[in-house]
Amino acid sequence: MTQQFYVSPEQLMKDRADFARKGIARGRSVVVISCEDGIALVAENPSPSLHKIGEIYDKIAFAAVGKYNEFESLRQAGVRYADVRGYSYDREDVTARGLASVYAQSLGAVFTAEQKPFEVELAVAEVGATQAEDHLYRLTFDGSIADEHSFVVMGGQADKVSSVIGQGWRSSLDFADAVRLAITGLVPRGEAEEQAKALPAGALEVAVLDRQSEATRGSRRAFRRLNDADITALLA
Amino acid sequence: MQESTANQVAANATSSFTEHLQRDRPELLPYNRSLQAGAPAAAPLQVPHATTIVAMSYDGGVLMAGDRRATMGNVIASRHIEKVFPADRYSVLGIAGTAGIAIDLTRLFQVELEHYEKIEGTLLSLEGKANRLGAMIRGNLPLAMQGLAVVPLFAGFDTSAGVGRLFSYDVTGGRYEEREHHTVGSGSVFARGALKKLWRPNLTAAEAVAVAVESLYDAADDDSATGGPDTVRQLWPVIYTVDSSGARRVPEGELAAASRNVIEARTIAGREA
């Protein structure tokens, strides 16, 4: 009969957290910026089809870093949650706060109960009628939830990227400025000149939540994914 | 064990909102209610019924129009009801039959299409959308047998083929592609008669709107359950056009003008029909 060794709960949690952090740190960063025109979500992602950014509902978007299969299952669960809620109550009743709290509970449950924690970090963004009504939530692998203002940076070089973006962020940014700022942040500092060219539109995944989607596009769905041509045009 | 987990994951992976509801929240489906078995079939339920929908193709797209009346027996249940809805960017549907179930079914269908788009990252093909709608109508068959039938009409722009297409359904979910034009609902025979005379190939969008308004006028003329243009309350039919740029609701102003033209022409002619 095998003997179970005693592991203190502190040690167990620390090991799990270290494991998850290592997994997340390997990935590339994702930036979510609230600005004048709405919310811009920018990821360094060479794949045109395996998205890190997704639409959840009319005004709500999702961004993630870490293991694709894990955050993809969370994204799909989020879309289901939002659609069921919107279908059974009303479209207005789907909020980022509700969704973020469901995510926090699932991540927390996986962190404590499962064999291995999810190696993911999520951001849930909701665009409001004014910038003050924008909501950005950051969720980490253990189910911690943080209500952020102005921007969220996640992934490998989060600290470096967020210091660059923190310096450049102003509430009056438009989408082009916000995406430019995000790209500046995503390119490692010091070698910005050479690297800026090495990050073409094809290596970026960009989506926006339009604050004025009803007025400009006649659609209540604020989420819009930008293709390579859109990105090039936006940055031109 | 490994394999059964994989099977489970695969079985749970669905892009369909309806399948998800069926599994997790069956009480939310509009057709998942069974009436008391052996309920007196002699006394049909008095519930609002939606009436006439017409759809036709025109040069570059398809159009769908519906009148604004719902009836409950001999009573007008609503003068304002809307029976034509955008299903997604490139398709619209119109409903005839039991209004309560039909409106819920429409909402479910709209969510179904959006859900697929969000999960899969692409739009469902037009055929795929038409088939999903057929499956939903089939789901309603038990209620249809008890007198609560819903019969939709579906029109959309096939972005891969570059043409507008029309689909009609029967209560069993049977799906039939229609050419040129089609009508459903209590006033459909009269509207069909009008369309046969008024429709011609390569109508412009504006001409198609005029034809739709006039055929609904004819349906309202002979069918008491179909509402004509109401100049007192300023109520006009609801019309959507779908072309390569997507679905668009024809503005009230254009509809008012088209309706007034029909009324004026008929008043001047001063004939019985």
Automatic annotation (TrEMBL), chain A:
The lineage of its organism: Bacteria, Bacillati, Actinomycetota, Actinomycetes, Micrococcales. The 20S proteasome core is composed of 14 alpha and 14 beta subunits that assemble into four stacked heptameric rings, resulting in a barrel-shaped structure. The two inner rings, each composed of seven catalytic beta subunits, are sandwiched by two outer rings, each composed of seven alpha subunits. The catalytic chamber with the active sites is on the inside of the barrel. Has a gated structure, the ends of the cylinder being occluded by the N-termini of the alpha-subunits. Is capped by the proteasome-associated ATPase, ARC. Pathway: Protein degradation; proteasomal Pup-dependent pathway. It comes from the Bacteria. This is Proteasome subunit alpha. It is found in: Cytoplasm. Belongs to the peptidase T1A family. Keywords: Cytoplasm, Hydrolase, Proteasome. One of its GO terms (cellular component) is cytoplasm.
From TrEMBL, chain B:
One of its GO terms (molecular function) is threonine-type endopeptidase activity. PROSITE patterns: PROTEASOME_BETA_2. It is found in: Cytoplasm. Its EC number is 3.4.25.1. Residues 1-50 form a propeptide. The formation of the proteasomal ATPase ARC-20S proteasome complex, likely via the docking of the C-termini of ARC into the intersubunit pockets in the alpha-rings, may trigger opening of the gate for substrate entry. Interconversion between the open-gate and close-gate conformations leads to a dynamic regulation of the 20S proteasome proteolysis activity. It catalyses: Cleavage of peptide bonds with very broad specificity. InterPro entries: Ntn_hydrolases_N (IPR029055), Pept_T1A_subB (IPR000243), Proteasome_sua/b (IPR001353), Proteasome_suB-type (IPR023333), PSB_actinobac (IPR022483). PANTHER family: ATP-DEPENDENT PROTEASE SUBUNIT HSLV (PTHR32194:SF0), METALLOPROTEASE TLDD (PTHR32194). Belongs to the peptidase T1B family. The 20S proteasome core is composed of 14 alpha and 14 beta subunits that assemble into four stacked heptameric rings, resulting in a barrel-shaped structure. The two inner rings, each composed of seven catalytic beta subunits, are sandwiched by two outer rings, each composed of seven alpha subunits. The catalytic chamber with the active sites is on the inside of the barrel. Has a gated structure, the ends of the cylinder being occluded by the N-termini of the alpha-subunits. Is capped by the proteasome-associated ATPase, ARC. This is Proteasome subunit beta. It comes from Pseudarthrobacter oxydans (Arthrobacter oxydans).
